[in-house]
Specification:
Number of strands: 3
Oligomer: single chain
Distance between the termini: 19 Å
Shape: globular
Helix content: 55-70%
Order of helices and strands: HHEHHEEH
Structural class: mainly alpha
Radius of gyration: 15 Å
Number of helices: 5
Strand order of the largest sheet: 1-3-2
Length: about 110
């Protein structure tokens, strides 16, 4: 899904794809799959929005209970999906997969 979202940036104006919330969540899903927390630098990598926008969205996601924020021993903040966020993303990705199966069969 991350690759598909990046592919949209060619044909569509970046301004309409500037909302980084889904990209953040997808990158956190990848981090979870790799059993690691994700830094702000990783979340910003390849983004079309400034880090400040990503930080604002992280705060929104944290307040919603979707993302957990922790501080490492060296004072860096790292981000991960909360238990609630894992459930939400599992449900969302399952819905996407089901929609593609319904569309294409199999």
């Amino acid at each position: 899904m991350l690759a598909a979202r990046k592919a949209l940036h060619g044909p569509l104006p970046s301004a309409i794809l500037a909302d980084p919330a889904l990209d953040i969540l997808l990158k956190l899903v990848v981090g979870r799959g790799e059993r690691r927390d994700v830094t702000i630098d990783e979340l910003a990598q390849g983004s079309t929005v400034p880090q400040s926008v990503i930080l604002r969205w992280l705060k929104v996601l944290e307040c919603a209970g979707t993302v957990d924020v922790t501080e490492t021993e060296d004072q860096r903040r790292v981000y991960a999906l909360s238990d609630r966020g894992v459930g939400e993303m599992d449900a969302a990705l399952t819905a996407v997969i089901r929609s593609q199966i319904a569309l294409h069969g199999n």
